[in-house]
Amino acid sequence: MRLEKERKLNYKVSIKKDYPELQNLTIEYNAIDNSKIYAEIVVKKIRARGIILEIPDYEKVPNNTVKLMKYCALGYSGATLHVRGDRGRSENKQPASMYFPFLTNNQQEELYYNYAYQDAIDLVNILVKEFPDLEINIVAKGQGAAIALVVSAISKKISRLFISNVQNVDFKYILDENLDIGVYDSLREYIRNYPEKEEYLLERLEEIDVLNCVGDVEAEINFGYSTLEDEKNIVINKKITSLFEKKNVTIFENEEGDLHEKILELWLMESV
User: Fold this and answer.
1) Each residue's pLDDT tens digit, 19-30
2) pTM of the predicted model, to two decimals?
3) Which of 17, 50, 222, 243 has its CA 20 to 30 A from that of 148?
4) Regarding beta strands 22-30 and 11-18, do their DSSP bridges make them parallel or antiparallel, or are they unpaired?
């Protein structure tokens, strides 16, 4: 599947609540496969400096309006994408299987993550059209960080990324080093059921590996990881950061959790 930098979009922006200084909007649009994709934005009406777009990690619930409002206090509008077929309101018309979100039972359909990547590219284009004077920054980890990197590489419309624990990086290393746990559990299950098809599996996963595009990212990348991470994960972190052009890498000593949020918070406080 070839990701499209820009395509004709059918979308609707609805006002849910309107306050003197804030406005709560929803955005609904048709994905490239006609799935209904949903996003939410809290707009700062007066002197907004930009938009901070959240892209949730795998199986994480998107933040609600109240949580998005926190960005307004620091001069930004806050938005979130509901990733298709996950814990939000977006629809996924692609077939699912026990190997979700990576493969669909040895069928040759396009991969789920290519649709998720395109959905986010589409949303960024909508935000640029609706708010042409506002820069767009993305904060995300895991699945969301992978989507953010692809969006930035393709669209060239993102100013900054605040990311950690990037998913979909170097699948061969993940399998070779037995890192196929958590979100990657389905890969282990696939190899268990089809040991003779490991080469096929890697060929398909190569289509969604973010290593293919990180060299094309023009946005400033603010990336963080912890010394508490497994050494094998730190190898992945170092590999991907070596490919970033404009980057600020923060290594957290003895800290865990949502490091992407900590990096963003530091940046916001310094920029106020």
Assistant:
1) 999 999 999 999
2) 0.96
3) 17
4) antiparallel
